Amino acid sequence: TWNKLLEEGREKLPKGAADIWLKTCLPISLEGGVLVLDVPNVFVKEQIQNRFLEKLEDLAAEMNVATKVILQVGKGAPKEEVKRAEKVSRPTPHPGSGLNPDYQFDSFVIGKSNRLAHAASLAVAESPGVAYNPLFIWGGVGLGKTHLMHSIGNYVLKKMEGARVAYVSSEKFINEFILSIQNNKTHEFKQKYRSVDVLLIDDIHFLANKESTQEEFFHTFNSLHDAKKQIVISSDKPPKEIHHIEERLVSRFEWGLVTDIQPPDLETRIAILKKKAEIKNYNVPEEVIFFLAQNIPSNIRELEGSLNSVMFFSDLNNEPLTVENAAKWLKDVIRNSNKGPASIEVIQQVTAETFGIPVSALTSSKRTSEIALARQIAMYLSREYTESSLQHIGYAFNRKDHTTVIHAVKKIEEAYKKDTRIRQIVDKIKEKL
Ligand code: ADP
Ligand code: MG
């Protein structure tokens, strides 16, 4: 049964789930629909939990194997890791709030890409209902929206005794609402979410096309807002760009402050990795941190996952944490990650190299004609080769205004047709990319 599950898992679970993580587990027992797996150490346990435990349970259920999977850290787990895990001090959880005590402002690293979102979150946490209401945070996957929302909640609970805080994902909000209708408990549902001081509702774009839940949320919103209770909302897009959400909700999302989180630059990625290693109480060599930060550019969750992986492999294989080993252990991760949107950095590097100028010239405000041309080409290629928004590209070049990007794209498009020199340069860079 276990082998079958592994086999199916290879196809249906996220990449690497079966081959990297599950392979290290041993099935211990299967009773009453509960599958107990022995995992070698706490890192694997965390990885499986964070990456795909729910999906694994779904798969096991689908195959009629089990409905619940329990991970137990093996008796043979190296002592040192267990100690390490224990040493990591955990703040007290707040039952019922839906808050994860691990996500605090303390552990959130501030960089250019998230400075405003962080500042706004802190302001809201300091004076809920007063500073910005609602606070709307948007940005790509794995960039820290959920972390910030939990930080707000945890902060409020620490500071204000008796405050009522509720964190809820939009999916959970939808499910609870539907259940409450089925069970004739809509009154309780309304009561629950309209009686809080701070409502943190994550990934609001999932409300798309859910008309009745939107209606319910509309009233929840009004009721809280009227009572000057704080609402914090996150989404993968700015309010106006979320499709299939009622206009009256969209306009309310814009009542307070709308702020975004962008992918972190190299420096911030390094700082985040250092912070994570410190939290885990693990000594990771500087050059390994740098290597990871350079190679996993687009998503902090992946960045963190890669750090966990190398720590884990180093422990498991009893091999030192060196750049060579990290490269070996992360071969697949890195290959996939570099295809991602963050190749803007690579485009910048290659363009700068081709022009024989430093990368910093591209992100500077220098306007000499060669540098301006190089910059425009790099912007144009970023638009062609990545899925980044104009805004994000502008941001990667230190431009507040994305009209510069639009202008650059148009100009190079035209020039590419007419100007042989420019065409040659662009083609040369494309080749290298
Ligand atoms: P999102 O909700 O935007 O998809 P998350 O908040 O879940 O992203 O963040 C993904 C992971 O990255 C989390 O483990 C989080 O702790 C971490 N993370 C994101 N941004 C930061 C940051 N600025 N400092 C420290 N950790 C971060
Ligand atoms: Mg999230």
Automatic annotation (TrEMBL):
Protein family: Belongs to the DnaA family.
Record protein name field: Chromosomal replication initiator protein DnaA
Source lineage: Bacteria, Thermotogati, Synergistota, Synergistia, Synergistales
Domain notes: Domain I is involved in oligomerization and binding regulators, domain II is flexibile and of varying length in different bacteria, domain III forms the AAA+ region, while domain IV binds dsDNA.
Cellular component terms per the entry's GO annotation: cytoplasm; plasma membrane
Segments for region (Domain IV, binds dsDNA): 315-433
This protein's UniProt keywords: ATP-binding, Cytoplasm, DNA replication, DNA-binding, Lipid-binding, Nucleotide-binding
Region (Domain I, interacts with DnaA modulators): 1-85
Gene: dnaA
Gene Ontology molecular-function annotations: ATP binding; DNA replication origin binding; lipid binding
